[in-house]
Structures are given as structure tokens and as C-alpha cells.
Design brief:
The chain folds into three domains: 66 residues; 88 residues, PDZ domain (Pdz3 Domain); 192 residues, Alpha-Beta Complex (2-enoyl-CoA Hydratase, Chain A, domain 1). It has 391 residues and is of the alpha+beta class. The longest helix is centred in the first third of the chain and has 37 residues. It is built from ten helices and 19 strands. Helix content is 36%, strand content 27%.
């Protein structure tokens, strides 16, 4: 490099250094100005401090942020951050569009990929519980135990499961890109969304007049489907009953209580207590109850409303629980619609089984603990239930 080039490089470096110094001075000056303004206002409320800080952040964004952005996205991010700051994975904010789509999840029909998902709220990992027969997920080869890794190019571990489900849903005929982990292998898939009608109740008559009812979720339609299944099995001469709640991650408490009202004798089904100790109780009446022998199948994916169901059956002693320790979600969330069409979901209470047990982060221990044996030809847990009833 000759002398002229060295002088040119020196001038460029000097110019950049002066510009950087001016920027640092401006940034530190703005921050110092903000701190001095707060120091002079000792009586500021926390709300005032937050508002002042947001205004300060906005100034930096307007002056220096390189890319275009939508103001409504920034606003939604503020609300989502507020709820996330509570540190509760079950509590969250939904934009108007997200809330409208969320409400579709409980009616048993939607357009999506046709997979049931579960989330480990300790690790944030989202796992495929089941790919429904004939669904895009099933046809693409998705399997139970696959870990959902990415959706639309974004990693989903730790993200609110409800929001991940919303990303997977969409207009029929559209596609969604996702990646799953199967062992150490990453599998990329592009699935076409289709209309999915989820059968939440399946039933059949097994050997020795043993009725079998599988409940995959407690949704709006589930109680009617369950009651119809019970009537059909009883008309066929059902003598004993197996209810399968394995991989049922929960749903609507009122629907669960309607089903339990059909099975339990008169008495307490479940009760909740909020932060103020206010207690709300749900009861079964004396009009209907099932007086035959019963087995309920559960596993580690049996959560929330499924645990309300299993806990009531166990406490009343009207059935035998078979399987493995349940998930352990003993808290209740409520949805609160806001004036602009958005909503927040907030954990509002703990629930307790009839005997007064709260199973949050503990789960329910079956009466007969039996791991599912994948090498067994057939369903060893179901066979155990049949064996118990046969005795």
C-alpha cells in the first residue's frame, strides 16, 4: 500500500470513528436524559415509568430501526410480552384473528393437517400424539412420538401450543411447511390443509359383552357423542365398561362434568378454588349413574379434564384405573374476550378431586400401573382391563 492509499484509509477510518462517537453520544445522551427526567419525578407510578420507557423505545425504533414493520404487530407484541412476563405457559394473549381461530378448535371440525399434539410444559417440546386416519399428517408419514420442530420456518419449542395449532390450521387447500424430529433425523414436510372432522368418541362391543368407549378430547360435541355411545352399547346388552382416556389432553370442564354426571352417583364431581379462596363446586345428580364394573385407561398424555374424570372415578371407587401416571395439570384457565375482539387466557384457579386432591405437577397414580408394551402383539393395557373385568 503506498502513502496516498494509507492517507485515504486513515481519513475514512477517522470519519467513521467520528460518526460512531457522535452516535454513541446521542444514544447515551438520550438515555441519560430519560434517567434524569425520572430522577426529577420521584412520585412516578409504575404505570408512568412503563409508559415513559415505551416512548423512549419508540424513539430509538423511529430513528434507527432499519426494516419496515407493522404497528399492529408491535402493539400485539407488547400485549403478548405482558402476559408472557407472568411466567405461566398456560396464560397468553390472542389477537382478534387468533381468538376467532382458537374458538374453532372446540367444535370438532376445522381445516388443518389432522394431528393431535401435546406439549411438555417443562421443556416446551411439542410432540405428536396421534395422526388421524386419512389426514394429511397421516398420509405424509407423521407418527406418534415425532417432535414438532419448526412451523413456517420458525422453531416452535417453548411457543404457546394453542398458537402453534393456529399456525397449522388455515384455509382448506393451502399448504404449511413444517419440520419434525424423529430421533436424530430432521424430516421436512409440506402438508396441504384439508377439512378435518375429529371423532372425539369411538365405541364398540368387545368380548364378553364388555363395552369400549375411547374419548380423544372433551369438546363441544363430545358429551352428546358419549351419551349416544352409552345408549347404543346398553341396547346391545353391555355388562361392563372400559373408558379409554389415553392421549386425551383435556378440553372443556363442563362437557367432562356432563359425562361424569351420567356415570357417577349423586355427589361432588370436582371443585375449584381461586386466589381469594372462592370455591366453585360441580355436582352429579341422582337421575342417572352407571352401576356396572368399569375400567379407565390413562397414560402420561391424559391431562387436565381427563384427570378430572380419572380422579372422580378413583375417589368414588366406581372403577379401576389402569396405565401409567397421568400428566399432572391441576389448574384451570378462563378466556376473557376484550373489547376489540382480542382475548386473554388466564390461569384463574386450581381444581380438586372429590377427595380434595390437587394433582398439579403430580398427576394421578393408576390403581394398576402398567406400561404400554410396544412389542406386545395387540394392546397389553386394554387386555389387562379386559382381564380385570373378566374376573
Amino acid at each position: 500500500m503506498d502513502g496516498q492509499d494509507k492517507k485515504s484509509s486513515f481519513r475514512k477510518g477517522l470519519g467513521f470513528g467520528v460518526m460512531l462517537s457522535v452516535m454513541i453520544f446521542c444514544l447515551t445522551g438520550c438515555a441519560a436524559s430519560y434517567l434524569y427526567s425520572l430522577a426529577g419525578k420521584q412520585n412516578l407510578t409504575k404505570e408512568d415509568e412503563v409508559e415513559a420507557k415505551i416512548q423512549e423505545l419508540n424513539q430509538y425504533i423511529e430513528q434507527f430501526y432499519l426494516f419496515d414493520y407493522e404497528e399492529e404487530d408491535v402493539e400485539a407484541g407488547i400485549y403478548k410480552g405482558l402476559m408472557a412476563g407472568l411466567g405461566d405457559v398456560y396464560t397468553g394473549y390472542y389477537t382478534p384473528d387468533e381468538f376467532a381461530e382458537f374458538m374453532e378448535q372446540t367444535n370438532g371440525t376445522y381445516s388443518g393437517i389432522g394431528a393431535l399434539l401435546s406439549q411438555d410444559y417443562t421443556t416446551g417440546i411439542i410432540t405428536v400424539v396421534r395422526a388421524f386416519e386419512g389426514s394429511p399428517a397421516k398420509q405424509a408419514g407423521m407418527q406418534a412420538g415425532d417432535i414438532l420442530y419448526m412451523v413456517k420456518g420458525e422453531e416452535v419449542t417453548g411457543k404457546d401450543l394453542s398458537l402453534v395449532v393456529l399456525d397449522l390450521k388455515g384455509e382448506e387447500g393451502t399448504t404449511v411447511d413444517l419440520s419434525i424430529l424423529r430421533g436424530t433425523e430432521v424430516l421436512d414436510m409440506t402438508l396441504e390443509r384439508r377439512h378435518i372432522e375429529v371423532p372425539t368418541v369411538e365405541s364398540q362391543m368387545l368380548e364378553q359383552q364388555i363395552g369400549y368407549i375411547a374419548i380423544t378430547a372433551f369438546e363441544d360435541v363430545t358429551d352428546e357423542q358419549f351419551l349416544a355411545a352409552m345408549d347404543e352399547l346398553e341396547s346391545q346388552g353391555m355388562k361392563q365398561l372400559i373408558i379409554d382416556l389415553r392421549d386425551n389432553t383435556g378440553g372443556l370442564v363442563d362437557v367432562t362434568c356432563t359425562i361424569l354426571d351420567r356415570l357417577l352417583p349423586e355427589g361432588l364431581i370436582v371443585y375449584t378454588e381461586d386466589k381469594f379462596g372462592k370455591r366453585v363446586e360441580e355436582y352429579s345428580d341422582a337421575d342417572h349413574y352407571y352401576d356396572g364394573e368399569m375400567v379407565v385407561l390413562v397414560n402420561g398424555n391424559s391431562a387436565s379434564a381427563s384427570e378430572i374424570f380419572a380422579g372422580a372415578v378413583q375417589d368414588y371407587g366406581i372403577g379401576t384405573l389402569v396405565g401409567t401416571q397421568t400428566f399432572g395439570k391441576g389448574i384451570v384457565q378462563s378466556l376473557f374476550p376484550l373489547s376489540d375482539g382480542s382475548a386473554v387466557k388466564i390461569t384463574v384457579s386450581r381444581y380438586y378431586t372429590p377427595a380434595g386432591n390437587n394433582i398439579h405437577e403430580v398427576g394421578i397414580t393408576p390403581d394398576v400401573v402398567l406400561e404400554y408394551n410396544r412389542e406386545y402383539e395387540g394392546d397389553n393395557q386394554l387386555q389387562k382391563a379386559i382381564q380385570i373385568l373378566s374376573k
